[in-house]
Design brief:
The chain folds into 2 domains: about 160 residues, Rossmann fold (3-Layer(aba) Sandwich), CATH 3.40.50; about 140 residues, Rossmann fold (3-Layer(aba) Sandwich). The protein is α/β, with parallel strands linked by helices. About 45% of the residues lie in helices and about 10% in strands. It has 16 helices and 12 strands. A 7-stranded mixed β-sheet has the order 2-1-3-4-5-6-12. Strands 8-7-9-10-11 form a 5-stranded parallel β-sheet, sandwiched between helices. The N and C termini lie far apart (about 55 Å).
Length: about 425
């Protein structure tokens, strides 16, 4: 069996999946021509990937002026299309299984009938923003209702195409709103986590309690609210000699530097609007035995979709509990230490690259436990915005007012439409 992984890296997830397959002795190749902006651990690239990587960097990443970036990216995509056209027959013959990040194939899904005709197994792995409805994530996609409506239609169309051609989809229930057929739940598979330890100076006991927040996007992560909470908490403990607190905001640095800071810190504040209790940053911290506070409205519903043993340990709370959670981590040393141990044990035992790769092999071999599956027509309880309700539902209202309720692309889920209309009424 030969496995192909492509075509875009997301926070190191697919590189470490590749390493997991390698540990199992599987013949696997990876094709990621574009270097990740935060420089996650990489594998040796083929000459074709190196050429495309340099072109991507020269034509797009290094350009500062928007119009130049747009033109440069278009030129790069044109060149990549022809490279794919030459490369495609070779990979089609060589590989039996294709794992595509975000379900992005070589030719925007038009190659799916070819994969099916030749009996290839295709797995699409979604990681959040790729299928989360764009109109509930304005910090990433903006607030132009025309653009949001078009993007939502394309998201829905992409999922429909993948489902039409029998692609196995892996997604998380809060971001699976556009699915109409059963998919495999993300946390049942996990994030392959492995990081290199860096030399750090051992901390003395009873010294500074170091807290780290390292957002990749400050709007999406709710950083302004986290900073406000920390300002209040630092003021509260300012004159308490038993609680010496140091809070670090770290942004725009390579992943290797983030890892260094993680190892020096006592706990993380990940984000305020998360629809998973452990995304990549919290998983990285867990690898080093560092617990995280993660907030999101999905915290109230997660046990509907996952058993306790499948939920990675973090202090996962609804956004209104963020101050209380931070104080708990500061005040309750025993709890923080217990969570540190539990979170490290979980990722080392269940989310190591090798263990995650084993779960993919079960999928490939059609040995999929029933509890891994979720039916989007029956299992979705709510909508979980990435941003403040007052911002998100104003945008949603504008879309409905101009283009109608069907523009949200969830006419097949009337109970979610009803929830959204109730929220629009409440927050606008």
């Amino acid at each position: 069996m030969r496995i192909f992984i492509g075509s875009k890296e997301v926070a190191g997830i697919f590189t470490f999946l590749y390493f997991g397959f390698k540990e199992l002795g599987i013949d696997v190749s990876i094709f990621f021509p574009e270097q990740h902006v935060y420089k996650y651990q990489d594998v040796k690239k083929s000459w074709m990937e190196r050429v495309l990587s340099q072109l991507h960097r020269f034509l797009y990443q290094k350009r500062k002026i928007k119009i130049v970036r747009v033109v440069g990216y278009s030129i790069y995509e044109f060149i990549k299309f022809w490279v794919h056209l030459i490369y495609f027959p070779y990979v089609l013959i060589k590989y039996d299984v294709f794992i595509f990040s975000s379900g992005t194939t070589f030719f925007w899904g038009y190659d799916l009938p070819i994969f099916r005709f030749f009996g290839k197994k295709v797995i699409a792995v979604f990681t959040g923003s790729d299928t989360r409805p764009v109109y509930i994530n304005p910090y990433l996609h903006g607030t132009s209702i025309g653009i949001l409506t078009q993007k939502a239609r394309l998201q829905k169309k992409k999922i429909q195409k993948l489902e039409k051609y029998g692609v196995i989809c892996i997604n998380n229930p809060p971001t699976a709103i556009f699915h109409s057929k059963p998919y495999i739940k993300w946390l049942n598979i996990g994030i392959p986590v492995k990081r290199n330890f860096s030399p750090t100076t051992p901390k003395e006991k009873n010294k500074t309690l170091e807290i780290l927040h390292s957002p990749s996007n400050s709007g999406i992560k709710g950083s302004k609210h986290i900073l406000n909470s920390m300002a209040k908490i630092e003021s509260k403990y300012k004159n308490d000699p038993s609680k010496n607190i140091k809070f670090t905001l770290l942004q725009g640095v390579p992943n290797s530097e983030v890892v260094n800071y993680i190892q020096r810190s006592d706990f993380m504040i990940d984000q305020l609007f998360s629809d998973t209790p452990m995304a990549v940053f919290a998983a990285e911290a867990a690898f080093f035995g560092k617990p995280s506070i993660v907030a999101g409205t999905y915290a109230k519903d997660i046990h509907h979709h996952y058993g306790t043993k499948d939920i990675p340990p973090s202090l996962y709370i609804t956004p209104d509990k963020i101050d209380e959670a931070i104080e708990k981590m500061i005040e309750d040393d025993a709890y923080r230490i217990q969570l540190s141990e539990a979170t490290q044990k979980f990722v080392h035992e269940k989310w190591s690259p090798k263990e995650v790769a084993k779960k993919y092999l079960r999928i490939i071999n059609n040995d999929i436990p029933k509890n891994w599956w979720s039916d989007p027509n029956n299992d979705l309880l709510d909508v979980y915005p990435i941003g403040e309700d007052e911002l998100v539902y104003v945008v949603v209202k504008k879309i409905i007012d101009k283009y109608g309720l069907p523009a949200l692309q969830i006419s097949d889920k009337p109970h979610l439409e009803k929830i959204i209309l109730e929220r629009v009424k409440k927050f606008t």
